[in-house]
Amino acid sequence: MVKNFLKGWGGTILWMVIVVSAIYLLNAFVFTSVSISGTSMEPNLLNQQRVGVNRLATLKRGDVVVFDARQEDPRFKTGNSPYYVKRVIGVPGDTVEYHSGNLYVNNKKVNQEYISTDEKTQGTEGDFGSTWNLKSLSTTGLWQRKDQNKSIVPSGEYFVMGDHRSVSNDGRYFGFVDRNHIMGKVVVPFWYSQQIKNSVDHQNQHFFA
């Protein structure tokens, strides 16, 4: 009787261990979820919204990503959320430039329909004026030492910006993000509007204007 009891419970416990292990591995290496902290991705992602993160996705221009800010932002303040959520603008080998309301990657105009005119213009100019590029940004003294004096996105790195650019602390201020520090690509839940899905999940399909 005791043997049968242990046998029954043993199978149940083994099954529970397998399920818990599978969930852990899924969260650690495949797919997890995070809560947005802050307003730097408005109007497309709002503070406290919960989204998924695909850890295995190949990162493309236009993708929204989550990364460890402690490894990338020299002015990161302890007590803040350790993760930033931003949009990939430049991938390895890209040039990035801004001229009077238009953003260019490799001299091709970027589609910015997902943000307002104010964010395309004054918001993007920020502290850097109506014309800037990676070279000029990298010589402001704000960037990490490893990223200074670069005119293209280095191998294994990405240039990111927030959608709410007038308030976003992003690549303009701290430089490039190492791929090893990126958790993965943001995927919005199925109940979000099609407009948000297009601007977050599928912006990589119509990145250029």
Automatic annotation (TrEMBL):
Taxonomic superkingdom: Bacteria
Cited InterPro entries: LexA/Signal_pep-like_sf, Pept_S26A_signal_pept_1, Pept_S26A_signal_pept_1_CS, Pept_S26A_signal_pept_1_Lys-AS, Peptidase_S26
Residues passing through the membrane, by range: 12-31
EC number of the protein: 3.4.21.89
Gene: spsB_2
PROSITE patterns in the cross-refs: SPASE_I_2, SPASE_I_3
KW rRNA-binding (keyword) present: no
NCBIfam families: sigpep_I_bact
Family indicated by similarity: Belongs to the peptidase S26 family.
Positions in coiled-coil regions: none
Catalytic activity: Cleavage of hydrophobic, N-terminal signal or leader sequences from secreted and periplasmic proteins
Gene3D superfamilies with a match to the protein in the record: Umud Fragment, subunit A
One example GO MF annotation: signal peptidase activity
Location in the cell: Cell membrane; Membrane
Keyword tags: Hydrolase, Membrane, Protease, Transmembrane, Transmembrane helix
UniProt topology in membrane: Single-pass type II membrane protein
Span of domain Peptidase S26: 12-191
The organism's taxonomic lineage, starting at the top: Bacteria, Bacillati, Bacillota, Bacilli, Lactobacillales
Record protein name field: Signal peptidase I
Pfam family, one: Peptidase_S26
